[in-house]
Amino acid sequence: MATKNLKIEKGNFLWFRLFVEVLIHMKDNARAHHDLVEILRMNYPQSNFVADFNQNYTADKAIEWLTRDDSCLLKELNRALRQQHLDHLFVFRYVINDIHQQLKTEHDKEIKDKEKTLTLYRSQVISEFELSQLLQANTGELIAINSFMSTWSDRMKAIDFHKEQHHVGLKHILFEIEVDYTKKSRPFAQIYGKEQDLTLFMLGCVFRIRSIMEDHTFHCYVMKIELCSDDDCDLKNIFDHMTKDFIQPETDLITLGSLLHRMGELDKARKYFQLLLHELDENDPDRAHCFDGLGHIENDQGRFREALKYYQQALNLRMSHNSSHTNHSLIALSHIHIANDYKDMGDYNEALQNVEKARTFIRQQNLQEDRIKEAACHIIMGSILYEKAKCIEALDEFQQALDINKQQGIPDDHPDRASIFQNMGLCHLTSGTIIHNPTLALDYCVQALIIRLNTLPQNHRCTGITYRSIGLAYEQLKEYQSALKFYKEANIIHKALNKTFNELQKTENDIKRIQKHLSDPMLRPTHQFKTQSSQNEAPADIGAIKFKTERISPQLCSTEVPIQVVTRRMILLGRSNEVKSSFGDALLAQDNYFMINQGSSSVTYTNESSHIVGFRDFYGRKLMIVDTPAFANEYGSNSIIRTKITHSLEQAAPGPHAFLFVLEFTPELSFSEEDDKKLCEFLISIFGPTIYQYIVFVFTNLEKLQRAGIEIDRYLKQRCSQTFINLMKRCKNRYIPIDNRAPPNAKDASFAELLLIIDRMLNENQGKEYTYQSSSLQQTLKFTTQM
């Protein structure tokens, strides 16, 4: 069961729920069933259930198929929900829809027959880390359950169920759930035919915490929660509005691709747009929407010429169907897209010409709903004026865009509104103008950041852009430590997206500039650095930009500027690519993410397409995992290994919080005393002696020791060389065992324990990350930067 604290994961929940809504409104087709059956056959080749499911599944029995004793549906669906594997959930779309419809039908019947309130119970094993997150939650806060949740009406049955679950490192928690049938909420209903008191809740239910306390009698924690109505969540206004944008009576791949683009899932969005293009006839007008979507993706990634080709294809197709007012509106939209792209390329004349063409089509119709496109024209005009340092005129354009949208009823926390604040803030950051005011700029950008943290998924590109803008404001205010903090946050997000993004190079230059300044207090920036407008962060559909508007008189924030989540940067080290990369994949909860080459080279990655950096949001933490080449028997002066390790360290700038040295438990002594001595010399020569303060040993294949009946301490004493034992002592014996065959929740418990070890280690290091101190590494860095 995936539990989300809406205080810190509000944006993720909002977009995931919109994604689910798109799925359950999508038209069913035979291909969906075929694709799901193929996945089940591949993962469960010996299961008789799959053949039965393929031949006999019906929508009205969806819950029965999900909860059958021999069903593999629930396992696969829960895995996809837990990992938020969007492609797999797309394959499950018709099953999710069928379950939703069945629950809704049964729920409507129960409303008439049931008592007003009902108490249900859910027993769960969770990681110690997840428990600590729940214990920190306050009474009245909201949590969301992003999976289907089964409950009992019998408290003792739920307690007995958790007694049967025994996993090392996991904690038991009993959810006591109060439901009120008079509240409008996500559907839930009793499951007939399985257990008479089992009740299933639709995924995405929101609950309010009433209390949490420890029950010493049953050795568990008891959390009392109540099911919220759809009106209780403070995301209701923004969710309702965005539902109107995305959810129609029937959704399609265009809707899905547009939503994924807004979520920042560019590769997935591209796949669905291209898939639909292959299915549509050459003259189908819906192809224009696909071209729009592909153009937005290319624009977001800085490939403006490629974007322009797609936008032009969309325009040409719409011009060929130019026979209705609706199409006139779409032609105006195409010109807006093209204008925005030319503006991003710096071709302002072409941009202005296309703005005028868009306005011509808008004026011809004079439709109220097209006024939003006029607002988009003002935004483009404002961005062009900003680039020309005409910031007073630019501010007026942005304000007109706000005013045009005044009557639209858009929520104050709509993410598109943040784009306006961002642009207005940047205008006040431009030096040499009479409106130059970094304090006012900071306030505008903080407002943009608060909106984006609350309404965008974590690690969204627009959030990274806003972090950098705040860093620029702090730098102009000469608050350099604060500037560095926000530049680092921006850098992490841009690395998570794509290392080729232009923003990544900018933030790395920002960090170097500030670090150079902080290392020499006598320095002062002597150049005028250009601030970055949010020109490249246009929403998926510029024509859908809508803002609730009024004259803005920002009040300077008295509270600390928010940082999204705690970040932990970790570098993988190891003697075996297979062992190290397999652990990295498990830590990321992704299959085959890190490239593994077990041939002639021990270098984990060999070309530009290889993954060396991975990210995961883990219970409010942002994990950054950086891979390195394995170095078994390749110590000495192997320049390739050293260069690759140097490159990995640069990815973790300004420095990793921990080095995870990944090994495996093996029955025999794998490495000799001499090998381990070379290992220690290699570590010192590359990283310097301070690396001992940052190493945590990770031993995989714990199940092998358990089968052999060997205790870990005895293994370390009898199967490891004295040199390796001394190495572990120098690292204060920080290690964690990992059971490769443990279920996902047990693995997550181990990963949570690993984070606690890293937190304690960081406290010992006064919260400082590892910095390059080895002369060998510094020379390698100098050499690689000169190449």
How would you characterize the overall build of this protein?
This protein is α/β, with parallel strands linked by helices and about 775 residues long. The protein has 4 domains: about 1-250, Toxin ADP-ribosyltransferase, Chain A, domain 1, CATH 3.90.176.10; about 265-270 and about 280-360, Alpha Horseshoe (Serine Threonine Protein Phosphatase 5, Tetratricopeptide repeat); about 365-565, Alpha Horseshoe (Serine Threonine Protein Phosphatase 5, Tetratricopeptide repeat), CATH 1.25.40; about 565-785, 3-Layer(aba) Sandwich (Rossmann fold). The chain has a 6-stranded mixed β-sheet. Strands 11-12-10-13-14-15 form a 6-stranded mixed β-sheet, with helices on both faces. The longest helix has 21 residues, at about 95-115. The radius of gyration is 28 Å and the shape is globular. It starts with a strand and ends with a helix.
Short description:
Keywords: Nucleotide-binding, Repeat, TPR repeat. This protein has 31 helices and 15 strands.
The CATH architecture name of the largest domain reads: Alpha-Beta Complex
Helical content class: 40-55%
Q: Tell me the name of the CATH homologous superfamily of the largest domain.
A: Toxin ADP-ribosyltransferase, Chain A, domain 1
Total domain units? 4
User: What is the strand content?
Assistant: 5-15%
Question: What's the number of extended β-strand segments?
Answer: 15
Number of helices: 31
Taken from the alpha-carbon principal axes, the silhouette is globular
CATH topology of the largest domain: Toxin ADP-ribosyltransferase, Chain A, domain 1
Structural class: alpha/beta
Instruction: Report the average pLDDT across residues.
Output: 82
The first-level CATH class of the largest domain is given as Alpha Beta
The description of the largest β-sheet is: 6 strands, mixed
